[in-house]
Amino acid sequence: MPELEMGLAIAAAAALLIPFALWLLRWAQKRRFAKDLVGGEGSVPPGTMGWPLLGEMLDFLRYFKFTNKPDEFISKRRARYGDTGIYRSHLFGSPVIITCSPEFNKQVLGSMTEDGRVSSGWPSNELLGSSSIAAVDGVPHKRLRKHLMEAFTSPKALIAQLNIAELTIVSALEQWVFKKRIVAYNETKAMTFRNMCEVLVSFQSEELLGKMESLYRGLMAGLRSLTINIPGTAFYRAVKEAID
User: Fold this and answer.
1) CA distance 176 to 227
2) Is the pLDDT of residue 137 over 70?
3) Does the pLDDT value for residue 56 go beyond 70?
């Protein structure tokens, strides 16, 4: 009987302490990052910072990767915190602000590209470099965007791209005839990538195209992963390929 009573006492204590410990972890996570989101002043948007280290990544992956219902990630927050159009969270290892209304999105994008007050913080500079258009904000972003628009959307550039695309599409269609049976999704992706390589770096080598596509897939996997640079992770493989 004493052993039974002791076991019951331990179980009762655990039933009380475990929920408290979980609450304490979430509270500590909120206290650690909430002030950073507003620079230590004002109030933060509604939401939760999730768990230490993980944040809300499990919930994010559930809707974006496993159930393929990304809209429900936002709908869940609207139902819980109200249709404010802006929420706080902790994703990919960092505190973040999620905006999901046209007004907030316009304000955020304008701040990033006009005066640089807001930064996306994504993707990692380790993968794309600190001077890529995806990594810079404010005036540098406007300057790079202007050059890119001139290079790819001017009438002369569009005509050249259409000529290249025509040759790529005709070549792909001729190859599809000999294959007799194809997976349209895979073939279309391969054709699009081939066209991109021809437009950007002007090569058509099958061997080099295959290597470039493999590197590109690794890069994209790294961009969508947590920035944890340890062996075995997608980010580590992508960084290694970028360095090599």
Assistant:
1) 39
2) yes
3) yes
Enter the tokens of residue 88: 């706080």
Token pair in block for residue 163: 């000529």
Rounded Cα distance between 196 and 224, Å, is: 21
Q: Is 154 helix (H, G, I), strand (E, B) or coil?
A: coil
What DSSP character marks residue 131? T
- Strand-pairing partners, residue 88, are 47, 97
CA distances from 144 to 36, 97, 116, 127, 137 (A): 29, 25, 14, 18, 10
pTM value?
Answer: 0.58
The residue count for the chain: 244
Count Cβ atoms below 10 Å from residue 48 Cβ, excluding itself.
18
Instruction: Give the CA distances from residue 50 to residues 89, 97, 123, in Å, rounded to whole numbers and listed in that order.
Output: 7, 13, 21
User: Distance between CA atoms of 54 and 183, rounded to whole angstroms?
Assistant: 37
Rg of the chain over Cα atoms, rounded to whole angstroms, equals 25
Q: What is the mean pLDDT of residues 149-176?
A: 88
What is the C-alpha to C-alpha distance for residues 24 and 16, in angstroms, rounded to an integer?
Answer: 13
Q: Tokens for 47?
A: 């939401």
Mean pLDDT for the chain? 78
